[in-house]
Design goal:
heterodimer; A: eight-stranded mixed beta sheet; 8 strands; 28% strand; globular; B: alpha+beta; 6 strands
Amino acid sequence: MTFINYASREINCKIVYYGPGLCGKTTNLQYIYDSTAPQAKGKLISLATETDRTLFFDFMPLELGTVRGFKTRFHLYTVPGQVYYDASRKLILKGVDGVVFVADSQEERMDANIESLYNLEENLQSQGYNLLDLPYVLQLNKRDLPNVIPTDELSAELARKGEPVFEATASQGVGVFDTLKAVAKQVLTELRKG
Amino acid sequence: MVETTVIIHEQQFQRIKNVLARLCVECAARVVFLVDRDGQPIAFHGDIGDMDTTSFSSLAAGNVAATTSMAKLIGEDVFPAVVHEGERESIFISVIGRSLLVVVFDERSTLGLVKLRTKKASHEVSSIFDDVMRDSHNGRLNENSFFAEITDEDIDSLFS
């Protein structure tokens, strides 16, 4: 849910990175954090287990600049990918303005992608959202690995509504900002529609 | 989208700030925050030092979201208040509808005092927030809104 404060002239939006375990959601955020000027970002908060798997969420606020005198701040969240953290995932989707689905392009992770996408649709519905109505981007991550499924095949399986699709290698930053821009743009366009 | 965009106007923001300022003095708090339950910071009053208020708000909301889910698992609807007591600094969070009143206090105050004063302030916050939500839902403020006039160029300029 977008938050507009006329007094402080700020627009705050919430974007959630979703996807199966180890698909690179946190890596996306980490790359954005590392590549952003200090004045444009807050801390990267990671609620992780001792083995660095996301337990509850990762979070970072990112200021993109001003639109007509209003500071636009995006709150970026990731969800934990592991199947058993479903309760946490549901909570993080509350008040979401846009979703990025990070798919793992490796052949052996196809089932995990499908299961996670199904879980996203289900959890959105339980919060009263419909994926088809929400700003949404599909990122095909880990394109640098040898055993990846061709992009057209992957898109055909995972795309839901003609959403923007980006190939990415998040660990090297490839496709990370393209993905973020695409979803942020959709969120702001939605705001314009009122 | 399911929920209407929340729009806080200057007058409402000032009312919120006044409530927070008074509460901060009345319970001798270090700082008092009002946070949306989805993690968006709304306003604060007091000494924040170098605290990252955006992250603090997000974590406060995450904290309440987790404890609310825990409440449901044991048959409670919600825990209306959450307390964290530290050696020097403590945090009291009061759940007020879709907002959270968060008080950070130290040994200059007591939990009892904070609870008492927060209860009174929560009624005022609730009333202001009702106005905010009603106005946002009615879209009455859209008359003044220039968001409809945002152009593709405005959006593109953010990413240039």
